[in-house]
Amino acid sequence: MTSEAGTNEINIAPFKQGFVSINKSYGGVKLCYYCNFEAVRPLIGGGKPVLLLLHGYPQSSFIWRHVWNDENPLSVYPVVDLPGYGNSRDPEHTIPQDKFSTGSAVLQALASLLPSSSQPHPLVIIAHDRGARIAHRIAVSRSSFSAFQLKAVSLMDIVPTTVQFAAFGKAKEACTYWHWPFLANVEIATKLILAFGGENWIRMTFGRTAGKSAQGLQKLEEDNAAKVYGAHMDREDVVRASCEDYAAAAGVDLERQAEDQEAGRKIDVPVLLIFSAAQLGARFDVEGIWRKDWVKEGVEVEALPVGDGIGHYVPEEAPDVVGERLLGWLMGF
């Protein structure tokens, strides 16, 4: 395995020893992975899936620190800062922020980190928020990624992008998800966020989308999370890339989903949905929406509405609940 060891720019102390920071070039951009490759190298190629963890906005791979904070005997699991986010900096904006392009970048770089194989690597993707939208695109377009055989996806706290935009016709939903059109106006949003300050923006975002559980809020704030994410959001290239992510959602991502629906292309691997019962689950029939129009008939869909006042950041606010359910689900693969 050939890789470039990179300087770790954020505190990943919550990850146990055995995780290493690896920068892998893709199209001139260094994508930053944190992985336990050495600890589980014997499992690679033994039929166990690679578990790829993808984070959302406005965060980084740091979001998984509570869920995957010990050596997992099931498989190798890389966590990655999405292109343009965190330490996967893309100052020249080389990688487009549509979900197919970012998914392609992540998977191609990951394939180059794994031992060469004549067979596709089995893959399970566990993803939250924007990362879950990338996972959705990969699942629908999985024939385009020959290095991997996608076995299953876990999508956390999302409905399909098309469904979310359609809901903007309701005033309350438009107010709740005001940041979508705001961030999609890249030039305005980038300047205002930088002027406001990265940590201020993170704390305001947490205040609007986190839950009401005192324990959940404590877990969200642990390990100086707001400062970690805020430091990234003080960088113009990171803010701009994240805004381009939302602009792509309002453009090419919507167009591709419309094409998928017209052609009947749907997710055809098992799906585990995990979402906030008090927030997303109170506004949408999350499981019903995915089953009806977005997952192929007969394909297994499981759902975990997380209650007790837990909000949008389910991997951070309720890591024990999420981790336990994921481990049980993964035993099937």
Could you explain how this protein is built, in words?
The chain has 333 residues and is an alpha/beta fold. The chain has 16 helices and 9 strands. It has helices at 37-40, 99-113, 130-140, 161-166, 171-176, 179-184, 186-196, 198-209, 214-221, 225-232, 236-249, 252-263, 280-283, 286-294, 314-317, 319-330; strands at 4-5, 20-26, 29-35, 50-54, 79-80, 121-128, 148-156, 271-276, 301-306. A 9-stranded mixed beta sheet has the order 1-2-3-5-4-6-7-8-9, with helices on both faces. Helix 3 links the parallel strand 6 (121-128) and strand 7 (148-156). It is globular and about 50 Å long. The two termini are 25 Å apart. The model is unreliable at 1-17 (pLDDT under 50).
How would you concisely characterize the structure shown here?
With 333 residues, the protein is an alpha/beta fold. The protein has 16 helices and nine strands.
Calculate the mean pLDDT score and round it.
Answer: 89
- Give me the count of strands: 9
Proportion of helical residues:
40-55%
Strand content: 15-25%
Structural class: alpha/beta
Coarse shape: globular
Q: Tell me the number of helical segments per DSSP (H or I, 4 or more residues long).
A: 16
Termini Cα gap: 25 Å
Lateral strand order in the biggest sheet: 1-2-3-5-4-6-7-8-9
* Largest beta-sheet characterization: 9 strands, mixed
Please describe the structure with a list of short key phrases separated by commas or semicolons.
single chain, alpha/beta
Draw up the topology in text.
Elements: E1 4-5, E2 20-26, E3 29-35, H1 37-40, E4 50-54, E5 79-80, H2 99-113, E6 121-128, H3 130-140, E7 148-156, H4 161-166, H5 171-176, H6 179-184, H7 186-196, H8 198-209, H9 214-221, H10 225-232, H11 236-249, H12 252-263, E8 271-276, H13 280-283, H14 286-294, E9 301-306, H15 314-317, H16 319-330
Parallel strand pairs: 4-5, 4-6, 6-7, 7-8, 8-9
Antiparallel strand pairs: 1-2, 2-3, 3-5
Helix pairs in contact: 2-3, 7-11, 8-10
